[in-house]
Amino acid sequence: MPSPKPGSPPVERRIDERARRFLAAAPAGGGKAKMVEFAVFGLKQGWACIFGAALLAALMAARLWYPDTAGLARNDFLTITAVIIQILMVAFKLETLRELRVIVLFHLVGTIMELFKTDVGSWSYNAEGVLRIGAVPLFSGFMYAAVGSYMVRVYRLFDLRFTAYPRRWITAVVAAAIYANFFTHHYIWDLRWVLLVAVVLVYGRCVMHFRVFRRVFRMPLVVSFLLVAVFIWLAENIATWSGAWLYPSQVEGWHPVGLEKLVAWLLLMIISVVLVAWVYKPQPLAVDEARRREVPSSAALR
User: Fold this and answer.
1) Looking at per-residue confidence, does 28 or 39 come out higher?
2) Global pTM?
3) Most buried residue, 88, 221, 223, 243, by CB count within 10 Å?
4) Furthest-apart CA pair in the chain: how many Å?
5) What is the β-pairing status of strands 132-133 and 136-137?
């Protein structure tokens, strides 16, 4: 595989080059090779999550150590921290300007939904600080941006390819219906289960191919949606524990977020996938790549 991608940020290109040199002599078969693939997979996932991980660390730190008597409200501190993280991501060229456009769009989409959801009482934030719109602190939009950041980075880091990817206009229609349902289900029928079936029907035949180190792996795209939704649900539990926001049932005392939220996060994933797909058009798996599952040991990480 060629490496690195021309559109990759300079920092990632340097990391990629050093990683390739370091792993060039790694075993090509057997248990050690599998361990190397697994380790690289974990490192790439961690690198893809850098925005979200930094923001989650700030939420936890604010819960554990931020003083209640501080002159700056905790929500304002989190907003300023989120802005600094985003500036650093761009300044150190960890995100391209092309990717930043998608992240900002996802930020706006999330903030609009936050304004509505807090107004109808789906969840709530502490009414503190001045960096907010109504009852919504501005750091909340960065939590959605973190999901968008992960999506654009994972697409690049794993050199994603697809077979039987649905037409993008169809996925856009499904995503628009999902987004609308987040608002309309408060007034008319909740169609989330119908929309979940639609997601399975639209994406059910699609298979995602991703390169870790030497090997190309495959996974049904719907399964990848579910796995990412599980990790977002875990992060949501940490965020609500930290007091970033609370659901009505958590106001009297924190408890884990219900598993039913997995469906909501899976559906939200479709919106992020569609936004990313309009920047990085899903590419099909090349014929020669489909026939080969192994590449020479000097090959790139992607």
Assistant:
1) 39
2) 0.84
3) 221
4) 63
5) antiparallel
